[in-house]
Design goal:
This protein has about 325 residues and is mostly helical. The protein is about 75% helix and about 0% strand. The chain has a domain of about 100 residues: Alpha Horseshoe (Serine Threonine Protein Phosphatase 5, Tetratricopeptide repeat). The protein is built from 17 helices and no strands. The longest helix has 23 residues.
Length: about 325
């Protein structure tokens, strides 16, 4: 895409937030076990085991010496998880959960391990048990582990088409992290299937504000607008689907038509601005974004894209001046 580095489409808040939330447990359980990892990865002697491998060996030895210590088993489970040995991580965590059912982190780590193994049937009851143990904690409102558990429980119910059950955990996830685009999307899907399209649209729009290249959210949005018999808005959403698929000519035609019918709808002007930017027409992009900004100056996505296009134009003008004899 013109004007966009290749990594920008996948290295988004959507991806980063999910990764950060999932690995948070490892930092708590393992502590400094990985402090030298990056140094080792760059300068390690060939044939030498990594710090992670050494940490696993040491933790295994400690568990053999103290098999009844639940914290040592959880540390080992966390190390297995970090190494991608999810079956072993689940086994260790399940043993702790069985012996010490009030150890909430055991349920959490077992649940995440089964998520990684795509065993949602196993993950769901473990994460629900973790939620039951943790949700009344005084710090539940800022608990990223709880947020992760809520998200995966909600996502699982959406995948099972049990949409009514999905709503509450996904709302819980968003109470903790309102900027989780994936949770916004999953909640919108659940609400849409419950014939609550107006509510679903609110979350679809939030999701694309956070991740402007979220194809599935625009597709869901288009379906909701069709169900609500709003053809101009549906045209906008379909234009944005084309934009995310890099079919800029189709996107431009649909968005221009939508803008004629919805001149006071800021998202359509934002979409036009991003489409013109991708096509290399920065002047047209700026004009569209100026309209979007005038309609909704507090929208952070509009602010970001508007500022980005202005910076590109200024840089281009500077280059042209410097290149003038």
């Amino acid at each position: 895409m013109k004007g966009q580095a290749p990594w920008e489409k996948w290295l988004t808040p959507r991806v980063l937030v999910r990764a950060i939330l999932v690995v948070g447990i490892l930092l708590i359980l393992v502590g400094g076990a990985f402090a030298g990892y990056y140094y080792w990865d760059r300068y390690r002697p060939r044939g030498q085991p990594s710090p992670l491998q050494k940490a696993i060996e040491q933790a295994e030895q400690q568990v053999r010496e103290n098999p009844a210590d639940p914290d040592l088993r959880l540390q080992l489970a966390a190390l297995y998880f970090e190494a991608g040995l999810y079956d072993r991580a689940a086994e260790q965590a399940d043993q702790v959960a069985k012996a010490y059912p009030d150890k909430d982190l055991a349920w959490y780590l077992a649940g995440l391990s089964y998520v990684r193994m795509e065993r949602k049937d196993k993950a769901l009851p473990r994460l629900e048990k973790f939620i039951a143990l943790r949700e009344d904690h005084p710090l539940a409102g800022i608990d990223t582990q709880l947020q992760t558990a809520y998200y995966y429980v909600g996502e699982t119910y959406v995948q099972r088409a049990e949409y009514e059950k999905a709503v509450e955990p996904l709302q819980g996830a968003l109470r903790i992290t309102p900027t989780d685009a994936d949770a916004r999307y999953q909640l919108a899907v659940a609400l849409q299937h419950l014939n609550r399209c107006e509510e679903a649209l609110e979350h679809y729009h939030w999701a694309v504000r956070l991740v402007p290249y979220f194809t599935e959210a625009y597709q869901g949005m288009a379906e909701c607008y069709e169900n609500l018999q709003k053809p101009a808005h549906m045209l906008y959403a379909r234009g944005m689907v084309a934009f995310t698929q890099e079919d800029y000519e189709t996107a431009l035609a649909r968005l221009q038509e939508a803008a004629e019918q919805l001149p006071d709808f800021a998202p359509v002007w934002l979409g036009l601005g991003m489409t013109y930017e991708a096509m290399g027409d920065l002047d047209a992009a700026l004009q569209a974004l100026e309209k979007a900004y005038a309609l909704n100056p507090d929208d952070f996505t509009i602010q970001h894209v508007y500022g980005r296009v202005q910076a590109k134009l200024e840089a281009l003008q500077t280059q042209q001046k410097e290149g003038t004899p």
